[in-house]
Amino acid sequence: MAYTPPQYASLTDYATYGLVGTGYRNITDPKRTAALIAASTMLEDALASQFVCPIVAPYPPQLITYTCFLADEILVTQQGLSLEGDGNKVIWKRADAARKWAEDVANDRVHPQGIIDSRTVQSFDADLDADTRPPRCATGNTAPGHGETGFPSEDD
Fold first, then answer.
1. pLDDT band at residue 81, thresholds of 50, 70 and 90?
2. Total of domains in the chain
3. Which residues form the domain of 71?
4. Which long-range contacts (CB under 8 A, 24 or more apart) does 18-24 make?
5. 39: which of 54, 71, 95, 117 fits an S-S bond (Cβ 3.0–4.6 Å)?
6. Is residue 153 part of a domain?
7. How many other CB atoms sit within 10 Å of the CB of residue 106?
8. Number of neighbouring beta carbons within 10 Å of residue 143
9. Any domain includes 147
């Protein structure tokens, strides 16, 4: 079975929770989607230590929000902008909070409520065999712009 990267927040979610808005004219919806997928994969890497991935919708608000926070950081750095500038510090702080949450989940210090993982779904269908079960979160993701969750080229 081919691996499909997760996307734990939609463009609609991003419009609600993300900060990188229309002021960045060259950030298109495909680039926003790629950033959401990259952010989702980063979070899934942490969630894999506590849950059988992929996480199943509906996604809890924390997961959606933190996905958007990380996508903001990815989009700003893709634009070559510094996260140290006064206008971007809030983006860095929000992304840092998302990384801290993911680390806390991975180290069993935080127990997110409302997460439905693949194991839960499997328990409802005892007839699934090993070949039809979703894999654990085997993302092996590299830095943004590399691997399966790479961003569109600057020409897109």
1. confident
2. 1
3. 11-140
4. 18/68, 18/69, 18/71, 18/72, 19/72, 19/90, 19/91, 19/94, 20/71, 20/72, 20/75, 20/76, 20/91, 24/75, 24/79
5. 71
6. no
7. 16
8. 11
9. no
